[in-house]
Design goal:
about 375 residues, alpha+beta, 4-stranded mixed beta sheet, 12 helices, about 55% helix, globular, binds zinc ion
């Protein structure tokens, strides 16, 4: 009998082959991609940290293997393979997110309050942003893949900072799919083995509305982890990489940075468009709904925490401002039209998902996850 223990990489390879997700992005290709390796390693540290502090969980902390797939499409997956839980993110997620924030900071009209924007240019948007970046990825050896760097050093650091926040949010979102029992529930009850962040609309499962509710849970719990990390960094700047400490001096800026990073991330996952998401017709709520839910969730968390003192009116105004600013920035770079209507109270109040998702969570999904979750479920 072969008793050789497989390495995590070998298990990851078998897992993504079984789900037909493509090839692993091999470590040898990332030798020159220092920031990519840094994000990956910091997320590994997050996992180690959660594992160490996991004695209060409902079940022992699961075996989780986290790695990247060498693909130029924008997607991320969470699923189970044998006794392992897999988080598999496409390389293009890192490439596009990092590229997007660097282009934004290299543009003099975007985030004018950061560093010296007058050193930057005012380039016009790219015709077809996503195809353009995908082409670049396909046709350029990765060690030659170069970002459009902001000229001002503070703005350069800020681009990395925002990319890091976005990558953290994506990682925490996938982790939430595992820890809150979504992966086990969907595989045991609906024979759905893999949660993917971007599903072709032709793939229609019967339980779309429940899937949307799970996505809301992964979004809010992913954001909650990012918020608690941000609060710790505000209390103790030394937890943060030296280059980024300057961005933790003002506590209001910390949350507006987080919101800016997350709003743009959701826009990219929505393929840049506000597709109308009807109940039962898509696996994810549309980006506008996700953004507004996260905005009010962020405010709720800040109101219930006692750790740092916040003027809630001031935070609210800032978050609304940053929502508009992130839309403008996104449009300037990608050329994608923005739709401010999704931020009006009428849209939000009338959108059937915004009220029905939380109700479906309370009355239906929460009970279903009870047997599967590793962590206490929010009410
Ligand atoms: Zn998800």
């Amino acid at each position: 009998m072969n008793t050789k223990r497989l390495t995590d990489n070998e298990i990851f390879d078998l897992a993504i082959r079984k789900e037909e997700l493509g090839e692993r992005f091999h470590d040898k290709h990332s030798l020159n991609l220092k920031d990519f390796r840094d994000y990956k390693q910091s997320h590994q540290f997050f996992l180690d940290g959660y594992r160490v502090k996991s004695n209060q969980l409902l079940k022992p902390f699961p075996k989780i293997i986290y790695n990247y797939i060498n693909k130029v499409t924008f997607n991320a997956h969470a699923f189970k393979y044998k006794e392992y839980y897999i988080i598999a993110i496409h390389l293009a997620v890192w490439a596009i997110i990092t590229d997007l924030f660097h282009r934004m900071l290299a543009h003099k009209e975007i985030l004018k309050g950061i560093g010296n924007p007058n050193k930057e240019s005012s380039a016009t948007s790219i015709g077809d942003y996503y195809d353009d970046v995908a082409d670049l990825l396909i046709n350029t050896p990765l060690d030659k893949f170069s970002l459009k760097f902001p000229k001002d050093t503070t703005r350069q650091h800020y681009a990395y900072h925002l990319s890091g926040l976005a990558m953290d949010f994506i990682f925490e979102h996938e982790l939430a799919h595992i820890l809150f029992g979504h992966v086990d529930y969907l595989s045991n009850c609906l024979s759905m083995n893999c949660i993917s962040e971007f599903q072709s609309s032709e793939i229609l499962y019967q339980n779309q509305f429940n899937l949307q509710t799970l996505e809301m849970n992964a979004d809010t719990m992913g954001l909650a982890s990012c918020i608690s990390r941000a609060i710790n960094a505000i209390k103790d700047n030394s937890l943060v990489n030296f280059n980024y400490r300057i961005f933790y001096k003002d506590k209001y800026q910390v949350f507006s940075d987080l919101a800016f990073a997350v709003f743009n991330t959701l826009r990219v996952f929505g393929d840049g468009d506000y597709k109308e998401t009807r109940i039962g017709k898509s696996t994810h709520p549309n980006p506008g709904v996700r953004q507004v839910i996260l905005l009010s969730f962020l405010e709720q968390i800040m109101q219930s925490q006692q750790t740092i003192k916040i003027e809630h009116e001031k935070l609210h105004e800032l978050l609304i401002k940053i929502m508009v600013e992130s839309e403008n920035a996104y449009k300037l770079i990608t050329g994608k039209e923005h739709n401010r209507y999704v931020y009006t109270p009428e849209y939000f109040a009338n959108h059937p998902l915004t009220s029905r998702l939380p109700i479906n969570w309370k009355e239906n999904i929460r009970n279903k996850l009870m047997n599967y979750t590793f962590v206490p479920l929010p009410t």
